[in-house]
From TrEMBL:
<dbReference type="InterPro" id="IPR025877">
    <property type="entry name" value="MobA-like_NTP_Trfase"/>
</dbReference>
<keyword id="KW-0547">Nucleotide-binding</keyword>
<feature type="compositionally biased region" description="Gly residues">
    <location>
        <begin position="208"/>
        <end position="217"/>
    </location>
</feature>
<feature type="domain" description="MobA-like NTP transferase">
    <location>
        <begin position="11"/>
        <end position="164"/>
    </location>
</feature>
<dbReference type="GO" id="GO:0061603">
    <property type="term" value="F:molybdenum cofactor guanylyltransferase activity"/>
</dbReference>
<feature type="binding site">
    <location>
        <position position="27"/>
    </location>
    <ligand>
        <name>GTP</name>
    </ligand>
</feature>
<feature type="binding site">
    <location>
        <begin position="14"/>
        <end position="16"/>
    </location>
    <ligand>
        <name>GTP</name>
    </ligand>
</feature>
<dbReference type="Pfam" id="PF12804">
    <property type="entry name" value="NTP_transf_3"/>
</dbReference>
<keyword id="KW-0548">Nucleotidyltransferase</keyword>
<comment type="similarity">
    <text>Belongs to the MobA family.</text>
</comment>
<feature type="compositionally biased region" description="Low complexity">
    <location>
        <begin position="191"/>
        <end position="207"/>
    </location>
</feature>
<protein>
    <recommendedName>
        <fullName>Molybdenum cofactor guanylyltransferase</fullName>
        <ecNumber>2.7.7.77</ecNumber>
    </recommendedName>
</protein>
<feature type="binding site">
    <location>
        <position position="107"/>
    </location>
    <ligand>
        <name>Mg(2+)</name>
    </ligand>
</feature>
<dbReference type="InterPro" id="IPR013482">
    <property type="entry name" value="Molybde_CF_guanTrfase"/>
</dbReference>
<keyword id="KW-0342">GTP-binding</keyword>
<feature type="binding site">
    <location>
        <position position="74"/>
    </location>
    <ligand>
        <name>GTP</name>
    </ligand>
</feature>
<keyword id="KW-0501">Molybdenum cofactor biosynthesis</keyword>
Length: 217
């Protein structure tokens, strides 16, 4: 008997941060080894997402004109943070009958090539599966049921903002990756991080297939 095939997911790249520690602007458009961070994230994520990609970003979408999918502004006012971008992805997916969204950071250029498969394997019934590396949980790199969109909208409209607190309200599980030879979730927050990523780039292929384990909440 053949194994059941997991339904395709929508890949959601979060690009709404204000990049204050980088001097402002769009971090995903910074260049690393001849490619933008966004191009590197797309190259890693797109093959894993059968329902395509979307980008969470506010402002003029023309600056992301080469992106292979829709640009989704926050669906709630006042730019309340990454949960607003995740809500945009869940509502976009839900309106199209897509049951799952995997969110990733737009400044994490070395995402694992088994990210979606491992999150799907860890996913609890009706809950959220999030990524971890070493002892650190990455709350914005996670697999979300689009059925949570109404609950998430109500959470934001009450003035709540914390991603971890919303995850803690729900059933959750963790898929963990090793940080050796490098952390596959290395993200770029400062010029020093970008320099470190330049040094890490030659090791990224091995890290992209890094192993790990899954665990419950």
């Amino acid at each position: 008997m053949s194994e059941a095939v997991a339904p395709p997911v929508l890949g959601l790249i979060l690009a709404g941060g204000q990049a204050r520690r980088m001097g402002g602007g769009d971090k995903p458009l910074l260049r690393l080894g001849g490619l933008t961070l966004l191009e590197r994230v797309v190259a890693r994520l797109a093959p894993q997402c059968g329902a395509g990609l979307a980008l969470s970003a506010n402002g003029d979408p023309a600056r992301f004109s080469g992106f292979p999918g829709p640009i989704l502004p926050d669906p709630v006012p006042d730019q309340p943070g990454p949960l607003a971008g995740i809500l945009a992805g869940l509502e976009h997916a839900g309106a199209r009958g897509i049951a799952r969204v995997v969110s990733v950071s737009g400044d994490a250029p070395f995402l694992p090539e088994d990210l979606v498969a491992r999150l799907q394997a860890a996913e609890p019934q009706g809950g959220i599966a999030l990524a971890a590396s070493g002892e650190r949980r990455h709350y914005t790199i996670a697999l979300w049921p689009s059925a949570l969109r109404d609950d998430l909208r109500a959470y934001l409209e009450r003035g709540e903002r914390r991603v971890g607190a919303f995850i803690d309200r729900n059933t959750a599980a963790v898929a963990s990756w090793t940080v050796q030879p490098m952390d596959p979730f290395l993200n770029i927050n400062t010029p020093e991080d970008l320099a470190a990523a330049e040094d890490a780039a030659p090791r990224s292929e091995a890290a992209g297939r890094g192993g790990g384990r899954s665990a419950g909440k």
